[in-house]
């Protein structure tokens, strides 16, 4: 089976690696153009591009695939490359570009998407973040037959995965990436035998995982402690939950609800106690215990290491 792969970040690279290891023919990879990254803001290839080049797979990086869009020449060149690749199927994982109808119709088996949620819940760009932020007990991976809608296509394979109370977007992402790589290999092996069954998504339970905006990273201490703790886990590692302290941003990387300390009569954001095992902060309802944090320009530190270099006395109000 000839597979054209379209993806960009680490989540997609894991799937590409599994397809390569399984022996599928990979004549072409599509990925986003190189972007500035790091402190020097030098152009950096995506994880998918790095894997493809390391394994001798041809790479195309169009700005758009719309033949009538802003970059028609790049789209036309990508179309020629894809037609020359003669794919039986196109596998898509966190690619970052909308596939126009001509792409969906190109391979005989269509386009299959690896989506990190239990569709129709959390269609859209940030399903892992939103599942943790909402307090979902489970998530999973859906292999979907792509259509012209936003994650609206028929489901082909679904597998569930529990979300632990300690999961961050980073830790859950890594488990879902492995699951997605395994499921897409299974899906293609079943497809090769003509055995894939398409199931329309339910009309009920639709929700959208909107893209994470940087402004969301600012913690609102007036929210309940459970909500604050979930947002901290959801925004770890990106964009990182933050609050103001002494006029500068203070990143909060790890925190838990402190069930043994309710707090009362304090302004939300008030530090109630600062000890080696954590910094207790008043929320609108309840208290969170911050266990890992980072000053602007500094390193991520445990609460104990942070407090060795900086006092954070009780009564300090964060977020002001």
Brief summary of the model shown:
By secondary structure, this protein is α/β, with parallel strands linked by helices. Helices cover 27% and strands 27% of the residues. A hairpin with a 2-residue loop joins strand 14 and strand 15 (278-282).
Q: State the assembly state of the protein chains.
A: single chain
Give Rg in angstroms: 22 Å
* Count of distinct strands: 17
- Rounded mean pLDDT is 96
Q: What are the salient characteristics of this protein?
A:
8 helices; 6-stranded antiparallel sheet; 320 residues; alpha/beta; 17 strands
Give the arrangement of secondary structure elements.
Blueprint: E1 2-7, H1 10-21, E2 25-30, E3 35-37, E4 42-44, H2 47-54, E5 59-60, H3 72-85, E6 89-93, H4 101-104, E7 111-115, E8 123-124, H5 127-133, E9 138-145, E10 155-162, H6 169-192, E11 208-209, H7 225-234, E12 241-245, E13 248-257, E14 271-275, E15 278-282, E16 287-295, E17 301-302, H8 303-309
Parallel strand pairs: 1-2, 1-6, 2-5, 6-7, 8-11
Antiparallel strand pairs: 3-4, 7-9, 9-10, 12-13, 13-16, 14-15, 15-16, 16-17
